[in-house]
Automatic annotation (TrEMBL):
<dbReference type="InterPro" id="IPR036969">
    <property type="entry name" value="Citrate_synthase_sf"/>
</dbReference>
<comment type="pathway">
    <text>Carbohydrate metabolism; tricarboxylic acid cycle; isocitrate from oxaloacetate: step 1/2.</text>
</comment>
<keyword id="KW-0816">Tricarboxylic acid cycle</keyword>
<dbReference type="Pfam" id="PF00285">
    <property type="entry name" value="Citrate_synt"/>
</dbReference>
<dbReference type="InterPro" id="IPR019810">
    <property type="entry name" value="Citrate_synthase_AS"/>
</dbReference>
<dbReference type="InterPro" id="IPR016143">
    <property type="entry name" value="Citrate_synth-like_sm_a-sub"/>
</dbReference>
<dbReference type="GO" id="GO:0005737">
    <property type="term" value="C:cytoplasm"/>
</dbReference>
<dbReference type="InterPro" id="IPR016142">
    <property type="entry name" value="Citrate_synth-like_lrg_a-sub"/>
</dbReference>
<dbReference type="InterPro" id="IPR024176">
    <property type="entry name" value="Citrate_synthase_bac-typ"/>
</dbReference>
<feature type="active site">
    <location>
        <position position="337"/>
    </location>
</feature>
<feature type="active site">
    <location>
        <position position="280"/>
    </location>
</feature>
<comment type="similarity">
    <text>Belongs to the citrate synthase family.</text>
</comment>
<keyword id="KW-0012">Acyltransferase</keyword>
<dbReference type="InterPro" id="IPR002020">
    <property type="entry name" value="Citrate_synthase"/>
</dbReference>
<dbReference type="GO" id="GO:0006099">
    <property type="term" value="P:tricarboxylic acid cycle"/>
</dbReference>
<dbReference type="GO" id="GO:0036440">
    <property type="term" value="F:citrate synthase activity"/>
</dbReference>
<protein>
    <recommendedName>
        <fullName>Citrate synthase</fullName>
    </recommendedName>
</protein>
Length: 402
């Protein structure tokens, strides 16, 4: 409703595009999305093929280095990552300083930011070797930091990484294992968790990735830029949605499971509630990742001794919403987060860890995008313009006269 014509007179010609709905901030060769057709590809490879056939470290290599690795490259990349899974002892103590009830995303971003203090030998964005070692350190240490943030929140001792395990198994053990008992890997959970990390690995210029690029455009180092990305992901309209979906499903369940009334209430916008896990800025069709996650949720939940009734609530919610004009007209479909929370819950993760899992998955995308931005000669410091709506010139009034 704002009449911007007079404002533009004083600003000069600029494009007002709040939320960057139609403004590209860069060119990129990493991820392709066709939101109308529901297509997602990393470096040209369809997400469906990568989810089914690939692994998280292989996809990380693809995103970061541009190509699927050969067997030798993958083995070297995996060994490099394993070599750096430990965090420094001073950093382990760092976690004791946070309150027990701190949100693990807040601890995660602080942990990533703190890497700039421990690895001052690798902060130069224009030194190729330093960028390589920062890349490996981040990929290796994020699961360790994430598991520590969780252990700290429940008052349990932290576990050192076990590099005889795979990337995902090692994270599961550091999260759920106990120092006194051997950890038994659940192969279904490891496979599905690895696949979920693949699905989250990049999504072009979303809020957190744009944040990583914007911070990095000032030539801030990779750790500083990625910690900003973690903070952007923290919000409930972005990564925090998976946690919000589960609160929503629990609320529906606690109030008697009347899904139809809940959907009707969401349509009344004055109530200010949204159907969490529904809608997407780019997808105006079924999110291709949600199709894959829905199938995996069924598989993991069916394998539980007491299958989670919340899955049925979610399935009903989807069915009702997709046949309701409100959602049809606005092209609102389930996004990747609609079913992920149910899987994480079945694996034993508490809701506060859900967004942390998203961050673990998104990490290679943030790194790949940061590296692409730093190496692009067209990169300039990000500096959006504005349309000023404040007071015109006025004279200072002395304190005694106000
Ligand atoms: N429930 C109900 N109505 C919705 C929803 C929803 N989840 N999402 C959008 N709408 C409505 C809006 O009220 C608006 O209606 P109007 O045209 O009558 O005003 C219309 O659909 C368009 O919505 P916008 O807010 O303009 O869409 P935008 O692209 O800005 O927002 C977003 C996208 C933030 C994802 C939104 O759909 C949302 O809030 N969804 C719920 C949170 C969520 O699931 N986030 C995860 C996103 S995916 C990710 O980060 C991995």
């Amino acid at each position: 409703g704002l009449d911007i014509a007079p404002l533009l007179k004083q600003t000069g010609k600029v494009t007002l595009d709040t939320g960057f709905v139609n403004t590209a901030s860069c060119t990129s060769a990493i991820t392709y999305i066709d939101g109308d057709a529901g297509i997602l590809r990393y470096r040209g490879y369809p997400i469906e093929q990568l989810a089914e056939k690939s692994s998280f470290l292989e996809v990380s290599h693809l995103l970061i280095h541009g190509e699927l690795p050969t067997e030798a490259e993958l083995s070297r990349f995996t060994e490099d990552v394993k070599e750096h899974t430990l965090i420094r002892e001073e950093m382990r103590r760092f976690f004791d300083g946070f309150p027990r009830d701190a949100h693990p995303m807040a601890v995660l971003s602080s942990g990533v930011s703190a890497l700039s203090t421990f690895y001052q030998d690798s902060l130069d964005p224009f030194d190729k070797d330093q960028v390589e070692i920062s890349t490996v350190r981040l990929l290796a240490k994020l699961p360790t930091i994430a598991a520590h943030s969780y252990k700290n929140s429940i008052g349990h001792p932290t576990l050192y990484p076990d590099n005889s395990l795979s990337y995902v198994e090692n994270f599961q053990r550091m999260t759920f294992g106990l120092p006194t008992t051997p950890y038994e890997v659940n192969p279904l959970h490891s496979r599905v968790l690895d696949m979920l990390l693949v699905l989250h690995a990049d999504h072009e210029q979303n809020c957190s990735t744009s944040t990583v690029r914007l911070v990095g455009s000032s030539q801030a180092n990779m750790f500083a830029s990625v910690s900003a990305g973690v903070n952007a992901l923290f919000g409930p309209l972005h990564g925090g949605a998976n946690e919000a979906v589960l609160s929503m499903l629990s609320k529906i369940d606690a109030e008697g499971g009347d899904v139809g009334s809940f959907v009707s209430a969401v349509k009344d916008k004055s109530a200010g509630t949204r159907l969490m896990g529904f809608g997407h800025r780019v997808y105006r069709n079924y999110d291709p990742r949600a199709t894959i996650v829905k199938k995996a949720a069924r598989e993991v939940i069916d394998a539980m001794p007491n299958p989670d009734p919340m899955l049925d609530i979610a399935l009903q919610l989807e069915e009702i919403a997709l046949s309701d004009d409100y959602f049809v007209e606005r092209k609102l479909y389930p996004n990747v987060d609609f079913y992920t929370g149910l899987i994480y819950r079945a694996m034993g993760f508490p809701p506060r860890m859900f967004t942390v899992l998203f961050a673990l998955g998104r990490l290679p995308g943030w790194i790949a995008q940061w590296r692409e931005m730093i190496n692009d000669p067209a990169t300039k410091i990000g500096r959006p313009r504005q349309v000023y709506t404040g007071a015109t010139e006025r004279d200072y009034v002395a304190l005694s006269d106000r």
